[in-house]
UniProtKB/TrEMBL annotation:
It holds the Pfam family MIase. Residues 1-84 form the Muconolactone isomerase domain. It comes from the Bacteria. The keyword Isomerase applies. One of its GO terms (molecular function) is isomerase activity. SUPFAM superfamilies: Dimeric alpha+beta barrel. This is Muconolactone delta-isomerase. InterPro entries: Dimeric_a/b-barrel (IPR011008), MLI_dom (IPR026029). Keywords: Isomerase.
Length: 107
């Protein structure tokens, strides 16, 4: 299962601890990319944060990896479950079992 995570640093929490956490993010991301748990990482231009795509085996694994992020306590997160468009059925529905969530179609 894949998740898109948009994270943005809360500048109201600016501290030396936050600065260290932000400085540790590249190494954390490289480690997750090397293990295949993060498939893409992007900096959002003009924002203090990023967009990462996680590929994990379970919701629990995803939550654990997200909570281990150095900036976890300093950022706001928007999380989206992704469905592979190649697995869309003939009726336009994505494979709900892939995400473990109910699928709703807006027409």
């Amino acid at each position: 299962m894949k998740f898109l995570v948009l994270w943005k640093i809360d500048l109201g929490l600016l501290s030396s601890e936050m600065q260290r956490a932000v400085g540790n993010m590249p190494a954390y991301g490289e480690k997750l990319e090397a293990t295949g748990k993060v498939v893409s990482r992007y900096h959002v231009v003009g924002a203090h944060g990023g967009a990462w795509i996680y590929e994990v085996d379970s919701h629990e694994e995803f939550e654990r990896l997200l909570a281990m992020a150095p900036v976890f306590n300093f950022a706001h997160y928007d999380v989206y479950t992704l469905a592979d468009m190649a697995k869309v059925g003939g009726d336009g529905t994505a494979a709900a079992e892939e995400s473990g969530l109910d699928t709703k179609i807006i027409r």
